[in-house]
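Good morning C.,

I know you're traveling, so I'll keep this short. The sequence:
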Amino acid sequence: MPAPRTVLLTGAAGGLGTLMRGLLPAYGYELRLFDVAPVEGAPDAVTADLCDKDALREAVRGVDAIIHLAGISLESSFDKILRANIEGTYNLYEAARQEGVRRVVFASSNHAIGYTPRPMPGDPLIPIGTARRPDTFYGLSKSFGEDLAQFYWDKHGVETVSVRIGSCFAEPTSVRMLSVWMSPGDGARLFHAALTAQDVRHTVVYGSSANTRLWWDLTTARALGYEPRDDSEQYADKLVAEHGELDPENPDHAHIGGHFVTDPPIWPY
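The tokens, ready to paste straight into the viewer:
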């Protein structure tokens, strides 16, 4: 697929959106920014809610592709997750369909498989086809987003790469993150590959760097042309000295979703 020129970046004011605003233009993209919060330093950004269908459709109009990062990125009440992550993502796909946009990159999450036991040393990497086991309403919304992407490919021909992101920060901040970290540079490389690969239909990939302690299989991401360059192991000595190695007897360490699995639910629903 030729590199799209204009890309709508939703969630542009968030942590990951801010990182991608700085990195993706180097790949030749002109970014159109969208967020419910004002985007600092970007007076032309669209400030609107994903449930504002008119504003969303106007933002989608004329773009070549969409990177959809917007929504609530932590656990919250079901009502809030429903509005932002489920209804909002549906509205995004409807706008894409109506305006003829044929490529979406959807920020899914490792929390779609959060109840999957983490692999122990020597175990095989977790394949992309592992059964979804969401750990929260947030993880459930990402499972919905993946199914929505499949539906819009089958029904309407809108292609999507769903990226099950681990943690994308400048550097990992916990021992768990040594396994799931995606450097900002690798994040931009993966998004670029997802935007330009041919015939993706609906492809699900894990979003991580080439970490020594990696938990999941990056085969489908590499098939897009993604070549990760970074490894979290350079931060391991410091983090292990501060926090110790992961303990399989600790419920927070036993599953892919970490503390999302064990945290109490958000009340009221």
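Safe travels,
E.
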